[in-house]
């Protein structure tokens, strides 16, 4: 009797200590901690009376003779706890998640022998509070329960999560899920309807429009169960909006059956005579277009927005996250009380792209960063188990396509895509988790592609065995329909009625489309949510500020709280220099002009956001938008202290990414058009890492999707003899992308020009991205300053700047040198040194859109000029030469001469001596060629 009581006390102590250790390992004694680490991490060996056997890799085990107790029951209890732990860790490896596999896989690391157990132990009582709250059961029943929880139609990966509160919450939800079964408000008939809507939509289009590409969802219809389940739960889960991003597979299905885009319009887009109903631009294929809709549900309404996307699969992820954060700002979902619960980002991925595209990892890394978090994203992976024709063994080095998500400790649910009930449970779980913890979660839906990559692809060429099985397989809709009839959930008549009603609606939509098409009134094809805007104009815009406003902003920028310990260098040089410029009305440098421009916008109600690597201080220590207390590192934001009713100023140091951060800020600019949104590259050439975002969104999105943006890109650019990598922002690449007034590209020479260009972004009736080659040496060059008079009320940005030199006899000028950016200061110094009186220098501040009339007007001041020169620092095959020379040639109908470096493979020399020699040569050429 005494021995039995002792065993029970020891068992209870074990349970208590283990629970304590799970919550915080530091709170238990060292010997207990070592014991639990042993069986949880698999470092201990399993010792049996009849010999010694070693657990295989990955299986945790418990010493048969525990140093903590000699009791036989305690030893058995420890083995059972180890078994539970290993099922939580490894149960997913033998879950029935693949609908194409007839048998679930078997993991030998979960065999009884791995834990020192035998079949004879199956009838022993194995109750432990670590599983189902100590419910009495035998070992055999425990294993059956573990199999149901962790090795059924959902495989759970969550033991990599370090936060014990999160991990234990997930564990409890999983192990009690069969008590809840699945939500009663999701009727079988409704779920069947979601599946059949998806299935019949694809079948209908396939029959009506033979051979048309649609990148169908066939084989992955379970996606609609996931999406609709989440949507229906949103109103009672505080979600008011969903920002959705996805690639092209299943996109038309999502547009129709989730966002409820007009069926007649969708069908019309398949017809041979379809012409996009857009105001301007070139449009895009139907499975790239975005859409917005407010869905009315039983419990409220939810706004849905699907971001337009290019074929560069995962590029839209960052854009969607940026849009979501912008919407959170607009509806007040970024405060402490709401904590980003009202706007939900959902990203839909393919398995091959999720594992293969580096942008996925970059966007995941945004998830908890202060300037970029969106309160958690639900990632839905349509796991086709193939990438175009590439099988998983050739597509990734990891066990799962989702393994990259473990780096942010996101829980991962691998779900059988042909078990609707499990899909519903997984979707509800994902939404509840996201709303509770504000973290990302991944639902990896295993399915297949019934039609191959697209409807013209023959998948059996490269995967004959798999596609042989798929060809014989019933569709999900038909198999689920038969299951519901067989179990009595629906009658055959009810099930057939669901299918017939859907097909009849599709047929009615088709006939309506044909009737409208016959009438010839294309305006009846509604459904576009594109945003037309006013045409580009060179008309000047008053962007100056009143003197009082400038002084108020300047005083705020130069006054620091008395108790704040500003760094001595800033206190003695930076702040006094600004105060002196404000006092004298002269000497406003680049960074001061920038802050004054921001301050004016903030006081006028325009929020300002700047993000990028180290942009709070500025790469060249020029900005100091944030002051840090030199003793406490407390922060002070001068621009957040302008007035009580000012707009919000945000400046964030980003993580070391260009692709994701630029994509995010571009998305932000779409979602919050009233805000001045800026992204800064640490050096201009860093934008190379974000080229996909530049090419496929910033440069072309308005033409393709009618989505205007006023994003500003700041790209430090200039030749200072510092080598190739940090000299050039690749101006030529941006100019090559310019057409149809799609964006603005500038290379400014004065702080005042920068001031006006920033403010101009919010002062016109249209929105265009602005690409600025920002300076490096000009940030502190004595001549590169402006006066207060240059930015006061009545002043504006000038696309072409005249020569500052006053020519007493302009008729003697026979040469005009055109340039942009930093080289201007070298040219005027050379002209001064040589005493040249016959050369005028005009600055093309805005290279695109090119203002030809202003070029003509300023050049006309020199009636005898017959030589026209373009001077640049970049090599001949780079910079603006190839772009600007044909434009100047058309303007003057004359030869345009080139003064600059010769063509080169590298942007710049790595030798400072060679750089100086090249610079001297190009300056001489400008005046003598």
Automatic annotation (TrEMBL):
<comment type="function">
    <text>E1 component of the 2-oxoglutarate dehydrogenase (OGDH) complex which catalyzes the decarboxylation of 2-oxoglutarate, the first step in the conversion of 2-oxoglutarate to succinyl-CoA and CO(2).</text>
</comment>
<dbReference type="GO" id="GO:0004591">
    <property type="term" value="F:oxoglutarate dehydrogenase (succinyl-transferring) activity"/>
</dbReference>
<dbReference type="InterPro" id="IPR029061">
    <property type="entry name" value="THDP-binding"/>
</dbReference>
<keyword id="KW-0786">Thiamine pyrophosphate</keyword>
<dbReference type="InterPro" id="IPR001017">
    <property type="entry name" value="DH_E1"/>
</dbReference>
<dbReference type="GO" id="GO:0045252">
    <property type="term" value="C:oxoglutarate dehydrogenase complex"/>
</dbReference>
<dbReference type="InterPro" id="IPR011603">
    <property type="entry name" value="2oxoglutarate_DH_E1"/>
</dbReference>
<keyword id="KW-0560">Oxidoreductase</keyword>
<feature type="domain" description="Transketolase-like pyrimidine-binding">
    <location>
        <begin position="588"/>
        <end position="781"/>
    </location>
</feature>
<dbReference type="Pfam" id="PF16870">
    <property type="entry name" value="OxoGdeHyase_C"/>
</dbReference>
<dbReference type="InterPro" id="IPR031717">
    <property type="entry name" value="ODO-1/KGD_C"/>
</dbReference>
<dbReference type="GO" id="GO:0006099">
    <property type="term" value="P:tricarboxylic acid cycle"/>
</dbReference>
<dbReference type="Pfam" id="PF02779">
    <property type="entry name" value="Transket_pyr"/>
</dbReference>
<dbReference type="InterPro" id="IPR042179">
    <property type="entry name" value="KGD_C_sf"/>
</dbReference>
<dbReference type="GO" id="GO:0005829">
    <property type="term" value="C:cytosol"/>
</dbReference>
<protein>
    <recommendedName>
        <fullName>oxoglutarate dehydrogenase (succinyl-transferring)</fullName>
        <ecNumber>1.2.4.2</ecNumber>
    </recommendedName>
</protein>
<dbReference type="Pfam" id="PF00676">
    <property type="entry name" value="E1_dh"/>
</dbReference>
<dbReference type="GO" id="GO:0030976">
    <property type="term" value="F:thiamine pyrophosphate binding"/>
</dbReference>
<dbReference type="InterPro" id="IPR005475">
    <property type="entry name" value="Transketolase-like_Pyr-bd"/>
</dbReference>
């Amino acid at each position: 009797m005494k021995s039995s009581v002792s065993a029970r006390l020891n068992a209870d102590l074990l349970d208590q200590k283990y629970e304590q250790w799970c919550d915080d390992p530091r709170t238990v004694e060292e010997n207990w901690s070592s014991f639990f680490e042993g069986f949880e991490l698999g470092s201990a060996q399993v010792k049996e009376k009849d010999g010694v056997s070693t657990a295989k890799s990955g299986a945790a085990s418990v010493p048969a003779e525990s140093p903590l107790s000699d009791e036989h029951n305690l030893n058995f209890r420890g083995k059972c706890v180890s078994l539970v732990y290993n099922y939580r860790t490894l149960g997913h490896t033998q879950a029935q998640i693949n609908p194409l596999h007839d048998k679930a896989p078997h993991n030998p690391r979960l065999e009884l022998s791995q834990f020192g157990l035998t079949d004879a132990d199956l009838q022993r009582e194995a109750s432990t509070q670590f599983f189902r709250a100590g419910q009495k059961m035998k070992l055999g029943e425990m294993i059956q329960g573990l199999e149901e929880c962790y090795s059924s139609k959902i495989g759970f990966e969550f033991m990599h999560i370090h936060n014990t509160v999160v991990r234990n919450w997930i564990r409890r939800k999983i192990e009690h899920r069969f008590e809840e079964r699945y939500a009663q408000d999701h009727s079988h008939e409704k779920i069947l309807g979601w599946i059949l809507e998806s299935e019949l939509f694809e079948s209908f289009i396939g029959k009506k429009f033979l051979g048309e590409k649609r990148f169908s969802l066939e084989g992955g219809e379970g996606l609609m169960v996931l999406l609709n389940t989440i949507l229906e739960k949103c109103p009672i889960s505080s979600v008011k909006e969903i920002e959705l991003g996805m690639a092209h597979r299943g996109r038309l299905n999502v547009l129709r059956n989730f966002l409820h885009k007009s069926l007649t319009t969708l069908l019309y887009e398949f017809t041979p005579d379809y012409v996009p109903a857009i105001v301007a631009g070139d449009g895009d294929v139907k499975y790239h277009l975005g859409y917005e809709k407010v869905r009315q549900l039983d419990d409220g309404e939810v706004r849905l927005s699907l971001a337009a996307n290019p074929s560069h699969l995962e590029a839209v992820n960052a854009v969607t996250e940026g849009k979501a954060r912008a919407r959170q700002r607009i509806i007040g979902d970024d405060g402490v009380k709401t904590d980003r619960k009202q706007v939900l980002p959902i990203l839909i991925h393919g398995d091959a792209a999720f594992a293969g595209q580096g942008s996925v990892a970059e966007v995941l890394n945004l998830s908890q960063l202060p300037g970029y978090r969106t309160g958690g994203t639900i990632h839905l992976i349509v796991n086709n188990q193939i990438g175009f024709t590439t099988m998983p063994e050739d597509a990734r080095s990891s066990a799962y396509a989702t393994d990259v998500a473990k780096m942010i400790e996101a829980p991962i649910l691998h779900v059988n895509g042909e078990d609707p009930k499990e899909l519903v449970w997984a979707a509800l779980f994902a939404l509840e988790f996201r709303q509770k913890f504000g973290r990302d979660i991944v639902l990896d839906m295993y399915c297949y592609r019934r039609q191959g990559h697209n409807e013209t692809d023959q998948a059996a060429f490269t995967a004959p065995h798999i596609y042989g099985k798929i060809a014989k397989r019933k569709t999900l809709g038909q198999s689920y329909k038969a299951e519901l009839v067989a179990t009595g959930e629906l009658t055959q008549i009810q099930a057939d009625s669901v299918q017939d009603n859907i097909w009849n609606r599709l047929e009615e939509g088709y006939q309506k489309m044909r009737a409208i098409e016959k009438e010839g009134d294309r305006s009846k094809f509604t459904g576009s949510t594109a945003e037309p805007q006013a045409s580009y104009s060179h008309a000047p815009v008053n962007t100056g500020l009143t003197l009082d406003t400038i002084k108020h902003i300047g005083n705020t920028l130069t006054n620091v709280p008395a108790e704040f310990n500003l760094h001595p260098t800033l206190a003695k040089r930076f702040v006094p220099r600004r105060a002196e410029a404000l006092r004298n009305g002269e000497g406003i440098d680049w960074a001061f002009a920038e802050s004054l421009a921001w301050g004016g916008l903030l006081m006028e109600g325009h929020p300002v956001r700047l993000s990028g690597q180290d942009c709070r201080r500025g790469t060249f220590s020029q900005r100091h938008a944030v002051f840090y207390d030199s003793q406490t590192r407390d922060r002070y934001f001068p621009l957040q202290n302008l007035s009580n009713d000012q707009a919000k100023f945000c400046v964030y140091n980003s993580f070391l990414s260009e692709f994701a951060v630029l994509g995010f800020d571009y998305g932000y600019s779409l979602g919050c058009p009233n805000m001045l949104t800026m992204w800064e590259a640490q050096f201009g050439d860093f934008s190379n890492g974000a080229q996909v975002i530049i090419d496929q969104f910033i440069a072309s999105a308005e033409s393709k999707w009618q989505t205007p943006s006023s994003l500003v890109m700041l790209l430090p650019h200039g030749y200072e003899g510092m080598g190739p990598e940090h000299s050039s922002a690749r101006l030529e690449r941006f100019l090559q992308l310019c057409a149809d007034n799609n964006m603005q590209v500038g290379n400014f020479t004065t702080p005042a020009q920068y001031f006006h260009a920033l403010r101009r972004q919010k002062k016109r009736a249209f929105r265009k991205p602005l690409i600025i080659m920002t300076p490096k040496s000009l940030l502190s060059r004595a001549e590169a300053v402006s006066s207060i008079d240059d930015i006061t009320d009545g002043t504006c940005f000038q696309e072409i700047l005249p020569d500052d030199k006053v020519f007493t006899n302009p008729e003697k000028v026979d040469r005009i040198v055109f340039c942009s950016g930093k080289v201007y200061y070298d040219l005027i110094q050379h002209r001064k040194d040589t005493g040249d009186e016959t050369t005028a220098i005009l600055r093309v501040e805005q290279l695109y859109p090119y203002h030809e009339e202003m070029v003509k007007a300023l050049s006309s001041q020199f009636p005898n000029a017959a030589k026209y020169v373009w001077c640049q620092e970049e090599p001949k095959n780079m910079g603006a030469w190839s772009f600007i020379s044909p434009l100047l040639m058309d303007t003057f109908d004359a030869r345009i001469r080139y003064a600059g470096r010769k063509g080169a493979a590298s942007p710049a020399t790595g030798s400072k001596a060679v750089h100086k020699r090249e610079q001297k040569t190009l300056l001489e050429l400008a005046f003598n060629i």
